[in-house]
User: Which sequence fits this backbone?
DNA sequence: TAGATTGTTAATCGATTAACAATC
DNA sequence: TAGATTGTTAATCGATTAACAATC
């Protein structure tokens, strides 16, 4: 008997980056009491083609039904399981500046299953200070806490120039994935995952698009 | 005489999304006193191929020199001009929750040329309250302020369910581009640019990558 | 049953990479 | 000059879309 490849085979990045959008829609539709959704409707609401939707869903361990479409509840469940959204991911935030503090107290992360357990900084002036329900920890505590609380993800919210050094310490401490909130380019070993949040880059992309739209010839 | 196509032709999105990384590197190298950089070195530091770097730079109105490479100062200048990073972009933040407040006071945006001029909310309990140097404005003031201050970009930092309605009001007010900080899917007219910040989606991508790395067979 | 909709194969499109002539 | 490095063309690779047989 062959194993289903769906959960084992690595899903391409292009697909993985769309799955959260399907998850949001499946959840919304299910909450609205809509039980079935077709690839056509999903494609319409997300500005994709039905082909893309069906191809994407074929990567996860879930099947639609001819003539009815996809069960919204089923889709939600399987997408959540595939993405790991059915389990809490323990995170730490490094950097207790404006951005770091904001991320730490932004309730949405916890609501979405990303539990921030500590906030760190290396500035003696802020170590020990309160940030929401957190007391800012000294960076030297990082390895202890990562080990003890099984921290999976480190969120890098420090000044640009400190980003790589902080990333190195997170990797050393045993974190498995990094979210880079800075504009710096960070390098990590292959066993560690890295995603750039690209907020400034997204704003630049917008500024460029606005400029190009201005003279549409 | 033919016009240079570089500033006129629209640069593909895949390329535009890499240009901010080149800009960061060019600036860093220039500040370190390094005057020239080759496509090989840039590729190495950014985990790209030299071919990709040369192809990307060929989209902007700038040329390297055989045997020396690219002038870091020249590259910085032209990239900044191409992306619009040499000019201030006026932004508003909608939503004075934790995330909105944080974005409003995060100095990095201003430092990168994204000047936030006002923060809005529709909750009477927060309207008129101070957020850093801002006083939270009533949403009804949006059209006035967008018109008067020539606001280019609206940053949508409201709860998920309010995202589309807020986007509609920003578009109506005359904003030219939207940065969507929520997980909602937003639809805008073609003349308006939209970029998803995808912070939660990035964390999901990370959680998935961590899970897949765990059993690497 | 007839028709709607999936799942999948094949075709197209676009992005990345390789190769190399031009050139400083 | 000789050799390093660009700019560009051609080849490859991967992602998206189209088409359609299977099926509920």
Assistant:
């Amino acid at each position: 008997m062959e194993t289903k490849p769906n959960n084992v085979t690595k899903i391409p990045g292009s697909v993985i980056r769309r799955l959260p959008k399907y998850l949001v829609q499946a959840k919304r539709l299910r909450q609205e009491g809509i039980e079935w959704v077709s690839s056509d409707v999903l494609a319409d609401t997300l500005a994709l083609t039905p082909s893309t939707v069906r191809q994407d869903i074929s990567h996860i361990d879930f099947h639609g039904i001819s003539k009815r479409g996809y069960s919204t509840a089923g889709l939600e469940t399987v997408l959540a399981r595939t993405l790991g959204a059915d389990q809490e991911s323990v995170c730490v935030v490094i950097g207790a500046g404006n951005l770091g503090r904001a991320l730490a107290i932004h309730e949405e992360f916890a609501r979405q299953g990303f539990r921030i357990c500590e906030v760190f900084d290396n500035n003696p002036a802020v170590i020990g200070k309160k940030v929401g329900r957190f007391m800012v920890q000294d960076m030297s505590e990082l390895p202890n806490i990562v080990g003890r609380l099984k921290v999976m993800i480190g969120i890098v919210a420090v000044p640009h120039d400190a980003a790589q050094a902080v990333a190195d310490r997170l990797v050393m401490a045993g974190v498995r994935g990094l979210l880079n909130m800075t504009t710096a380019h960070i390098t990590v070993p292959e066993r560690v995952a890295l995603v750039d949040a690209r907020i400034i880059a997204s704003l630049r992309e917008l500024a460029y698009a606005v400029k190009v739209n201005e003279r549409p010839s």
